[in-house]
Predict the 3D structure of the following.
Amino acid sequence: MPAASPRPSQRIDGRTARSERTRAAIVEAHLRLIREGDLRPTADRIAKHAGVSLRALWSHFADMEALFAASGKLVLEERDEAHEPVPADLPLERRIEAYCHQRARLLEQVAPVAKASSLKEPFSPALQTYRNAHIDRVQDELRTLFGREIGGDEHLLNALTAISMWPTWGTLRDAMGLDPDAARLALTRTVRALLTGRD
């Protein structure tokens, strides 16, 4: 007796699962290429690394902007998974040290993607949206961790945010050629000076 044909819902579920796997493979290939040093991967290279056709890539993403949006979402999720909240009841010096250690670790983690994004961000609303999301997360952490010291001083919050973001870290690491430990020490000294008025 021949096997029964799959029911329509099963076929639809199977197609949906395959589509989601293909979409995820494309996003992962995009980020993998960037992390391997290809800061401006083409759609053709992304498709090849994902093991799909160029037609399949464009069937899942209307344009590169849509791919940037999906990749940015994954990077933000990875950042959130890697983030470890620092206890806000620690003494100030320990909060500063823990915060700067974590910022250094996270900034090193996102370095290749941040470099690639900086090339396209001025022309990409999707990348601008995710940059703003990163800023919001950093400011939320600063308010939580150093709320007593910041008080209502928005200028202080802005300064702490700026020193904590990729452009500053990129200057320390790439333009100035500092290793991660030296860059972290510069970050720590600046955060300490802003919060306490001493270095």
Observations:
- The chain has two domains: 8-61, 69-196.
